[in-house]
Amino acid sequence: MLGFIIQRAIQAVAVMAVMSVIVFVGVYAIGNPVDIVIPPDATQAMRDEAIRRLGLDLPLWEQYGIFAWNLLHGDFGRSFVYNVPVLELIGGRLPATLELVLISILFAAVAGVSLGVYAGVKPDSWVSKAIMGLSILGFSVPSFWVGLILILTFAVSLGWLPAGGRGETVTVWGIEWSFLTLDGLSHIVLPAINLALFKLAMMIRLARAGTREVMLSDTVKFARAAGIPEGVILRRHVLKLISIPLITVFGLELGSTLAFAVVTETIFSWPGVGKLIIDSIGVLDRPVMVAYLVLIAFLFVMINFTVDLVFALIDPRIRSGRQSA
Amino acid sequence: MTDISAPQKATPPALVFWREFRRNKPATVALGLTVLLILVAVFAPLIAPQDPYDLGSLSLMDARRPPGFVGSGGYTHILGTDPQGRDLLSAILYGLRISIEIGIMAGAIALAIGATLGVVAAYVGGWVESLIMRIVDLQLSFPAILLALVLSALLGQGKAQLVTALVAAQYAYFARTAYGAATSERRKDYIEAALATPLHARRVVFRHLLPNCAPPLIVVATVQIASSISLEATLSFLGLGLPVTEPSLGMLISNGFPYMMSGRYWISVYPGVMLIILIMAINIVGDQIRDQLNPRLRR
Amino acid sequence: MTPETGKPVLEVENLQTEFATAKGALRAVDGVSFSLSPGEIIGLVGESGSGKSVTGFSLLGLIDAPGRIAGGSVKLNGTELVGMSPQELRKRRGKEIAMIFQDPIATLNPLLTIGQQMEMALAAHETLSRRAAAEKSAEALARVGIPSARERLKSYPHEFSGGMRQRAAIAIALLHRPAVVVADEPTTALDVSIQAQIIHEMKALARDYGVAMIWISHDLAVVSALASRILVMYAGRLVEQGPSAQVLRDPRHPYTRGLIDSLPSATVPGQMLTQIPGSMPSLGALPPGCAFAPRCSYASDACGAKPDMVQAGRRGWRCVHPLGTEHKERAAS
Predict the structure, then answer these.
(1) Which residues in chain A touch residue B146, judged by CB atoms under 8 angstroms apart?
(2) Interface contact flag, C173 A226, Cβ < 8 Å
(3) Residues spanned by the domain of B131
(4) Tally of domains within chain B
(5) For position B295, what pLDDT does the model report?
(6) Which terminus, N or C, of chain A has the lesser number of Cβ atoms within 10 Å?
(7) How far is CA B211 from CA A89, B166, B205, in A?
């Protein structure tokens, strides 16, 4: 088990190193960042001064060296636009995003697995067909469009829920949270549903496919032959057997939910990291873009690492060192 | 995934495939719809009541009018007009044209690049294989939308830039699929034997490896075309995709968004409906093809 | 040799199981009838696709849609199982009638310990404390020959060898000492040496517990070592039945003859194994009369009508040209 953890940790570090190179090259090597920090009518002298100040006169590998060194010391540079340390900027916005992402992914997982297992157990009932219709819809309809329709329906036409913003927040441990107040909760409902819909559709599909396969398996037949009630079979055999692919996807989707938060936050004016990155992309605020991407990559690596650990906890075959096929 | 090579009686496999496809009614309807939308997109200039790019024919007097309004052009705007006074139906037809064009272009290029990389990795093996597949896997674990977002921001607006961003975001899916299919075929003894003689190498790649990758690649291609259309719309909605002069469906939706709050829903809603119909139709067709090609689901 | 005393524990009458397909209902089990005495072991033999496994599942009411039991009767200790409510049926499965499957890797849940799986099977029919359940499970494991059973309860299936896994599955099936066990090729996936052990132990268990057993197999040799009676199945119908020794020595149906001839032991060393020509027709394309006729060297026009089961003493066959009898007639004339 310890060897397994060490092996995965080394892999994670390697992936982070590669990611930092890709991000650096991707963001710094394309286009010219000088143009946005100097006024359009700047003299050549001002221009050269800016280039030196940003370290752009150094060879690319040296630039990367400095970048990586600073990164390791938690220094992501200063935002070109806001002129504050990037980490501070992102740190201030992160809770709003995490709150939104966690609530929607929890909702997607709980609702998705329940609906999916139901549809897998009774594939021919009309409820299951309705569930599957919903999931095709959730897959096909672009996320931003769902956001628009949610706003149009619940905010504009019905006036039940607010269309944007975070609403009233409560400060706990020095961080502001929306979901602890009624007003904040009403603000989070629509964006959370919006963000959850795609994952919900995916969870439904996976849970249904897994359930159908497991229900036809000899394990379930044998359990039935032993007279074990259907409810127990579902809870103890089926849920456990479908959990491995579900956890993989759940972990991967956690990351992509963070990414899709960009869209949802823009539509619902949710003041999170996603909104920040879209604004930064608009003005090519490179340090913010780089920090965001490195942060996302880091989260990805951490999530994958955690997923592997959870696997080991669930599947005794991995725990005892035998890799499953 | 390899069962289509099994010889079936005299009927050509394509016909067998089509007969099975036709048994699924919704999928057949979706296929018809997809073909219809593509035709509409191709012939948009002939069908649309107005040329939305011809700025001379636009009048701001006609802007944001509801469906059914008779404008200064003398004809009824069935779906109303947009903020620039364009006939919305025409704008949608042209937008559909752009969306489909981008989707197919990005899908085709990503397919070509991805399939090549996948087959090369499987065929060459060694460090080339590990290098290609490591990069592909790394990228697959990273959300495509972020990559497309950042790339299109860095590359700037324009059709070529947008397609580049979409291809970069999507080629990895094709590479993974082609690699999977090609390796499973490559391990078979006759390929190993044929590869032992250098003369046959090219033949093996073109006669065996590539055809064997085709069915799963077709499935991925349909899904990816739908997803590049959706991705393009999302980018355009965020103001990152195409220049304003060539509004795709996503940009039409984006243009209408500010007016939604004031009840002028149609500017966003109708292009959106068209977008959803298009994506859903393609996805349903893709689903059916996948089910038909997946031997595990056959009973 | 067979303790055929008192009332039969299982009576199957004209059992019919169908599967709905796009081309109409396919009859996988067509009019199977037999009975089983307490403690008796019978063998149900046939090629794959003959309907022997479906028959086994039908007895427990474990036919999944699109399949269904279309008719007939299955009486367990005098109680009719066909048409019984799912809840009632569930209460009898595992308690009065149990089943063992072919592949223990597939039947046991890899993510639960053997102990947990046995506890579930116990809890299905009785309420026990944890301690009592563990006690009972360990005892059952010990009975099927698993050493240090107490500790092994905490093991996962992958920590067992193939034979041990199947023993654990057998222990689960026998937990409640059912009157009837359907064993669906339980030794096919195992090594030959372990096969022999398990068959030996099953025989002992059946005797000790008084369990009647239906041993389903494609392998006549395995069945003949175990069963007192043999039922031969072909394309959904029973084609021959009778005491094992008699059926093996002197088969009536040409299909049974073919099965016996294709056994390696029936062949002189160095000689090619005999095969039955052709393959079993698919259920959707059965010939109108005897389903075996197209592969049968004795077939005549008379085989165009469905043959009935001919009963003679404890033997029965469904053939218009029964082998042994024709032989005697020829010898007599």
Answers:
(1) 259, 262, 293, 296
(2) yes
(3) 25-56+86-297
(4) 1
(5) 53
(6) C
(7) 52, 25, 9
The Cα–Cα gap between A253 and A109 comes to 10
For residue B16, being part of any structural domain is answered with no
Could you identify the residue written with the tokens 């197209």? C294
Cα A293–Cα A294–Cα A296 angle in degrees, nearest 5: 65
Out of A139, A151, A256, the one facing B260 most closely (by C-beta) is: A151
Residue B198 in any domain: the answer is: yes
Closest Cα in chain A, distance from residue C54 (Å)? 13
Residue A137, classified by CB atoms within 10 Å of its CB into exposed (0-12), middle (13-18) or buried (19+), is middle
Least confident of A194-203, B175-184, C92-101: B175-184
In a domain, B73, yes or no: no
Picking from C97, C99, C107, C116 by the largest number of A CB atoms within 10 A of its own CB, the best residue to mutate is: C107
Closest CA to A101 of A299, A307, A308, A317: A299
- A289: nearest CA partner in chain B: B150
Q: Which two tokens stand for residue B4?
A: 């289509």
The total of other beta-carbon atoms located within 10 Å of residue B22's CB is 11
Closest to C12 measured CA to CA, from C71, C63, C53? C71
Give the whole-angstrom CA distance, residue A162 versus residue B259: 17
Residue B72 lies in a domain: no
List the one residue out of A165, A324, A131, A156 whose CA is nearest residue A245. A324
Smallest CA–CA distance, residue A172 to chain B, in Å, is: 31
- Find which of B134, B276, B297 to mutate to test the A interface (most A CBs within 10 Å of its CB): B276
- In this structure, the strands spanning C97-100 and C180-184 are parallel
Residue A199 contacts residue A108 (beta carbons within 8 Å): yes
B109, pLDDT greater than 90:
yes
Q: What pLDDT shows up at residue A6?
A: 81
Tokens of A204: 């439904």
Please give the span between the terminal C-alpha atoms of chain B, in angstroms, as a whole number.
15
If contacts are CB pairs under 8 Å, which of residues 163-222 in chain C contact chain A? 169, 172-173, 175
**Inter-chain residue contact C93 with A217, CB threshold 8 Å:** no
Give CA–CA dist C234/C48, Å, rounded. Answer: 9
CA distances, C24 to each of B25, C20, C71, C151 (Å): 20, 6, 17, 52
Residue C162: pLDDT above 80? yes
Q: Whose CA is closest to A227, among C15, B113, C144, C124?
A: C124
Residue A52 pLDDT greater than 70, yes or no: yes
Confidence of residue C78 (pLDDT cuts 50, 70, 90): confident
Cα–Cα distance measured from residue B99 to residue B105, given in angstroms and rounded to the nearest whole number: 10
Token pair of B137, please? 């896997």
Q: Residue B275 is part of a domain; what is its CATH number?
A: 1.10.3720.10
The neighbours of chain B, by the rule of 3 or more Cβ pairs under 8 Å, are A
Q: How many residues does chain C have?
A: 333
Q: pLDDT band at residue B76, thresholds of 50, 70 and 90?
A: low
For chain C, which domains are there? 10-96+178-332 (3.40.50.300), 107-175 (no CATH)
Superfamily of domain A86-324: MetI-like (1.10.3720.10)
The nearest CA of chain A is from the CA of C83 a distance in Å of 17
Please answer whether residues C233 and C52 qualify as being in contact, where contact means their C-beta atoms are separated by less than 8 angstroms.
yes
d(CA A262, CA A270): 9
Q: Is the peptide bond before A229 cis (omega within 30 degrees of 0)?
A: no
Mark yes or no for CB contact C123/A226 under 8 Å.
Answer: no
Is A240 close to C94, i.e. CB distance below 8 A? no
